[in-house]
Amino acid sequence: MATASLPPVRGSFIWHELMTTDTTSAANFYTKLVGWKTKAFDQNPSYTMFTVKGDGVAGLMALPEPNSPRVWLAYIGTPNVDETARQAEGLGGKVVKKPEDIPTVGRFAIIQDPQGALFVAFTPLPRPTPPKATPNVDAFTWHELITTDWRGALAFYKSLFGWEETDSMDMGPEMGTYQMYGWKGRMLGGMMNKPKQNPGPPAWLSYMKVVDAKKSAATIKKLGGQVINGPMEVPGGSWIAAGLDLQGVAFAVHSPKKSKAPAAKAARRAAPKASKKKKPVRKAKPAKRSKPAKRSKPARKKKAAAKKRK
Question: Per the domain annotation, does 270 fall within a domain?
Answer without folding.
Answer: no
